[in-house]
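User: Second chain of the day. Same drill as before.
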Amino acid sequence: MAIPHKLKTLLTDPLLLLLAAGIAARWFLLGSGSLTIDEIGTLVIARQPLPDLIPYTLHLGFNPPLFNFFTSLWQSLGEGALWLRALPFIFSAAALAAYRSFCKEFFSADPESGAAAARLAVFLGAFSPFWINLGQQFRMYSLFLFLAILANHLFLKLLRGTAAPRHRAAYGVVLLLGLYTHYYFGFVWAAQGLTTLVFVKEGRGRLVLTQIGAMLVFLPWLAAGIKAVGVVSGVQSMDWSSPFTFLGNFLLGWGTVDMLIPRWLAAAGVLGFCAAAAGLWRLKTRRAELLLALLHIALPLLSVPVLELLTGNSFSMPRYWLFITPFYYLLLAYAAEGLAGWRRSTARILLAAAVVGGLCAYYVLKIKVDPFFLPAARRIEQVTRPGTLVLHTSAYWYMPLKYYYAPGFRHCIIASPGEENGFLATGWLPDHCVIGSLKDPQLAAEPFLLVDPYRKATGQLLSPASRRLLGEAKLMP
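Assistant: Same format as last time:
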């Protein structure tokens, strides 16, 4: 029986094959690995009744509420790790599908080298350890990426005058959804707004009104978010080399390669920066696309000194700059395909080896470097009775064990400035317990179990004499 021509075309479409392979890579090991403190924070918010969802999101999530509405409905159907992470997996798969279409649209004016660049860019996105890592976390980042890609795809159609009337309405909705997903979607909005003012001639007024309208509807939440942002801590200031480390993360993975081969991330970032600059240079004849890509990269960089001046905090981490990566991969691919002969083949191989090597490292570390909270909870159950006080020195163990893996025990955390991250500083965690002194009556009541992953002391049931010794050794406050 002959295969229909249309189906045969689909089965041999390299972009479609890359899409399928990328979705499979996102599903692989999806449910393995312990839920992290950030994922537990998302789960705690999702468990709240709908009337409390907005206050909890403001004070505990630090991000706009759209993803939390999805998680509230999703969590009500189950709390297994695989089930929880299936929600960001769906958004991650949708983001990759949107990226396939976006790359085809971006390079549609250059059918020869553009088609090859689109294939390479989709390859980078399909196997990006950075995208897959964030797509396997019960967090908002895969939704953030999906909406950023979709917004740029729709904007590109409007910019080129190829959009249908429905695309303008869809664009406004996507802008609004993106703003209500992550504050840094504002950089996407700003890049598109500035590009509109410079290059859009016909229909500029209506497009600007669409962009302004989305921001106006977002302003009430933005005002509330700015008021609540003072509770955030632990985001480091940036030095001159930090953007290179970010670019290395985008290519090699979120810190995975750096754990295996230190300082490679920054080196890879320098090479990636040079390649992206070469890709921008190749775009010089397509000035609108060049400006759009350049603004996505330049605006967050320019915001760093401003934020540090105003707040003393850059509020910058690689995952916050996720919206840069679709253009970053496009520029890397376009630079590689602009080379000739063996140089082009070498560039393709190096880019493919970088992402595949980073992805393999991510999978290995996902299996090997894990807190293994579930086995830890089983050990706690074996050595203590229900209701025993479990005392923690680390918030990164306290929250997962208290709210997910070992909820049948009383969990408290030792007060420590180093552990007062955003989640703990807010005071919004349900049944939050902080031990501030060895004189606390909870410690005098009975022996307790000390959980200390930093190995200041081995986890064990402690007698009053052991507590005094730990205090004298300054292992406990």
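The mean pLDDT is 86.

User: Great, on to the next one.
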